[in-house]
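Ticket closed. Logging final result for NADP-dependent oxidoreductase.
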Amino acid sequence: MKAFVMDRYGRSDVVHAGEMPEPELGAEDVLVRIHAASINPLDLKIRSGALKLVLPYRLPLILGNDMAGVVQRVGARVRQFKVGDEVYARPRQERIGTFAELIAVHEDALALKPRTLTMEQAASIPLVGLTGWQALVEKAGLQQGQKVLIHAGSGGVGTFAIQLAKHLGAYVATTASAANRDLVKGLGADVVIDYKQTDFATVLHDYDVVLDTHGGDTLMKSVRVLKPGGRLISISGPPDPAFATASGAPWFVRAAMGMLSYRIRALARRHQVGYAFLFMRADGGQLRRIAELIDAGAIRPVVDRVFPFASTLAALDYVDTGRAKGKVVLKMPA
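Final structure:
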């Protein structure tokens, strides 16, 4: 099958088109012919080797972390899906590889795609949708009337998380450029901070939750926005010991993660707030709930551009510019 593969870590020149064996199908797996896949900053981090400590992949590796397509075959113990079903998924982390014609996905990571979406739109949802759900619903327990700051509102995670937070009844602030103000307001943001003109930490106070997508100085300053008892959840900050333990990392990796996150955890304690690192996991059940929200009109996909599959390298470079609004999608040939 055709796929885009990386043979070593680096930048754009390490990924190339090639022929790979069709995936083997386990008893609880579903073989999906991919119609569309989307690109995420996670793909760039994997490509560069920035996540080798957390994700020690064996190379060569097919990139790609979410997709939509049609079921071709099912394993002997699969009960939830049948041939011909239109599905979408974020595969389990150890089984990524959606920049390809076919993929075998464990049925627990799979869900029927939202009926109201095209394949390209559906492929834009899984990773950012699960990230938003697990941050705001699972970790934060966001409630009606609470205040949440979502950084980078015009990005893939931001555009989804704003809509989810509004559906949950929260008051939503976000950071975005002036050029993207109308976009994020249209998604439901109550307050938009132009990060080029205003320091968010000087104007926002007494928030219940912050969803950080930047790390670095943005992460550290976000502590000041929260009220005592608030929650700071980051997908870009340093992993915390709880994540290290849950991931089953060896002791020296757990120790390294503890040291890396010591500064932000200590700062959070001084401000009487909680800090948690989130590395989103595959979950077909949550994707089913997200599909229900989409089909009910509560959440809509935001797709910046659709590239043909043959232009995967150009699409990766475009995402690498940081200028995409929402998601960038790859469309497989008919």
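The two ends are 14 Å apart (CA to CA). No further action required.
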